[in-house]
Amino acid sequence: MKGRILVVDDEEIVVKSCLRVLGGGEHEVDAVNSGAEALKKIDDGQYDVIILDIMMPNIDGLEVLQRVKESHPDIEVVMVTGLSQIETAVRSMKLGAFDYLSKPFDPDELKLTVERALERRRLLQENLTLKAEVGSKYRFENIIGSSPRMQEVYRLIAQCAPTNTTVLITGESGTGKELVARAIHYNSLRKDKPIVPVDCTSLSENLLESELFGHVKGSFTGAVANKRGLIEVANGGTLFLDEIGNIPLSIQAKLLRVIQEREFKAVGDTRTQSVNIRLIAATNKDLRAMVAEGTFRDDLYYRIDIFPIRIPPLRERPADVAPLAFHFLRTFSGELGKNVTQFSEGAMSVLANYDWPGNLRELENTVHRAVILASDSVVRKAHLAGIAGEAAQEDNDVPKTGDELKRTKKAAREKSVEGIERAFVLEALKRNAWNVTRSAEETGMQRANFQALMKKHNIRLR
Q1: Residue 330 is inside which H or E element, if any?
Q2: Which of 171, 247, 281, 433 has its CA 20 to 30 Å from the CA of residue 343?
C-alpha cells in the first residue's frame, strides 16, 4: 500500500536515511527537523504514518504524539528512540503510538514497520467505511413502508433510539423485528459499538446459558477453555435477544439480574462481572399469556416491557406490499444479474390480494423466486403460482378452444376448492390462537389430517 509519510527528527543523518529507505517512488515522503514544524505540516497535509523522534528540543516527540492523537487519531505514529529511552518508548505506546524503533535501526526493519502501520490504517479505514454503510442501511428512510401503521413504528423508533431504555419488539414471524432492532441501535448513541443478536430458539438450555454468560475452563464436560459470553461481547453496545419467549425459566432468572444489576457470572465462575449494555428483546409470542401460564417470569416481563413496539403484519398494511415488492425486485435483479424491472398487472393483483401469513420474509422469498423464473423484464402471474395456491397461467390467458375451456374450468374449480380449504384452515387457527391441536378438535378433524391441509397450503405456525 502506497502511503504519505512524514519523518520528524532533528538529526539530519536519520532524516536522510529514512528518505533513502522509504522514498524512490514507493511512498510519498516529507521530512522536518522539529516538533513545531511537524505539527504545522500535519495540519496542512494528510499523512498516513509519522516517523517521530522522541528526543527533540522545545517540543519533544511525546508532546507531538499526544497532540497528533487528539487532532488526527487515525494517523499511525512510529516512535524513534535511543537505547537509553526504552521506558519512554513504552510510555509512548500507551499514549497511542503504533510501534517504536531503536537507533540505529535496520532499513528492512523500518520498511516492515511502516508497511505494518499502513496495513493497520487501511484495515481501520475499511472498518469505518463498513460501519458507515451498515449504519446508513438502517436509517429510517431506508426502511420500506409508508402506511400509517408503519409511520407509527418509525415515530416510536425515533423516540426510543437516543435513550438507553429496554425495548420489547412484538410481531408475527417475518415482520422484520430484527430490522427494527438494528434501526434502533444504529440511530442510538451506541451505534459505534456492536449490536449482538442472540437467537434464543436455536440452542438447548445448557448451550444457551453458555452462549449468553460464557463459561470457565472445566465448568462442564467439553469446557476445555474459558469462553466469553455474548453479554460480555455486547459490552458498551446492544444485546438483541430474538424470540425471548423461548428462554427457559432457569436462564430468565439470571437474565433478570443482568437487567437489574448490570452484572453477571460466567458458568462455573465465582467472580461477578459488570457490564454496560442496552437490551432489545423481540418475540412472536404473547408474553402476558405466558406469565399467566407460569412459563415466563412476571418480574422479567415487567422489566423488558418498558417500551413496547408492535410491528404490524403485512396483511394489516396492504399499501406497503407494492413498494416492498419493487424493493425486493431491484435487490434480486441486481444480485442475479438480470434486468427484471416490473410486475405485470395480473402479478401485482396477486401480490396485493394475498394474505401473506409469512409477512416480509414470505414476500421476499416469493419475489426472489419470481425473478429467477422471469425470462424477460416482467414478473408475471405464472411466476407467483405458489403463493396463492393457484394453477399457473399467463396473464390474460383466455381459452381459445373447447378443450382449453374445459381445462380452464377445471382449474377454476380446483382454485375455488383450494381457496375455501385455505380459508378454512386459517380461520380455525386464528380462532384457536394458532394451536393446531385445539383447531383440529374444534373442526372435528384428526390432527394429522388438519396438519396435512396446513402443509398442502404452505401454512406455517406463527
Answers
A1: helix 321-336
A2: 171
